[in-house]
Amino acid sequence: MRSSVPVPLSVATSTLIVVGAIMMMTTNAAAQTPMTGAEGARLYQARCGTCHSIAANKIGPAHKGVFGRQSAMAPGYNYSPALRAANINWNAATLDQWLQGPQKMVKGSRMFLAVPNPTERAAIIAFLQSDAAK
Ligand code: HEC
Question: How far is the CA of 10 from the centre of ligand 1 (A)?
Fold first, then answer.
């Protein structure tokens, strides 16, 4: 096995892909005008929908009524001890911080996802605040 060649190559390739993706996101953010409500719903589906829905607990808790409420209050969802102890009020500022790094905000929390693009975070948060999520 000549493993010395393929391994560094694949590392270099994935680094390039990551750098490329970050550049695309950055370019996107700079070029964008504020997103519409429909865009927020679409982003929510795409980024959060694997683990969340508005109406039902899945891997993550249901988001019905989450905007304006205390953390760890979705009925019937088994939260981490960390999030149960956190006592956060979910508003635009706290959700923005959460979406930049849940584990940075609440050490020991169990959500593994960040949304690095601030325009996308704002659109998703606006969706959570809208009637569709009440
Ligand atoms: C890979 C699965 C996963 C994805 C993707 C995900 N989440 Fe989560 N989320 C979780 C889990 C699990 C929890 C519960 C964390 C805990 O108990 O520590 C959570 C908790 C939350 C909470 C706290 C809810 C409450 O009742 O206190 C919010 C808000 C939230 N997620 C928003 C989002 C948003 C918005 C997205 C999309 C940008 C998203 N999540 C994507 C798994 C995920």
Answer: 32
